[in-house]
Amino acid sequence: MLSNQQLAPLLGYNWRKDLTSGNFGSVSVVEKVDNNPEKNQIAMKTVKHDAHRSEREFSSHMKASEGADHVIKIFAMENVELQTVFFMELASMGDLFHLIYESPSAVPYHRFFKHLIAGLQHLHSKDIIHLDIKPENLFISANNVLKIGDFGFARSCKTDNGDEIMLDGKRGTHGYMAPEILVENARWRGPPVDVWAAGIVLVNMITKKEPWKDAVES
Fold it and tell me: Do the beta carbons of residue 176 and residue 133 sit within 8 Å?
């Protein structure tokens, strides 16, 4: 497996720095190799290649970002041997998790919650559900705008005929899962699950605490 620093020049980009690295993959800041003195930096996300999941993530993210003010824009996807690389808009202020739990600054929660709900409203109008809304997947742009990113769990919530798709099983991140997800053998709707998770994010922003790590019956 190549590092992002090794991959970037193979795809025509200059690597600048790594942002995050973990089991899900790695994210770095890169810029296009050209003669333009005003080079725009973008984010490069690399994950282990999984053709079906990567195509679903890219198509869902691309559809969701069309005409959206509160969704991270995605530009391209490349497959390099065992890795898939996504190129997307860079949110220079980092993610909301860092702002909530690692910054001494007060969080403008009213402003950011309005942005989050506007972003979800846009996603759902496109029949896309995110299924992993949490502070780590919400990003802040240079002009203090919150944007939804990381569409690894996202999918369509309707069939080609316009019928709603009911889901089952546990999806998302513990602590942000709606109660119906945790009911064994239950089938549940996608949009309300995103709204529940947004409510947990609001609690995070106001209190700088998580209400629970994992929801239980009690």
Answer: yes
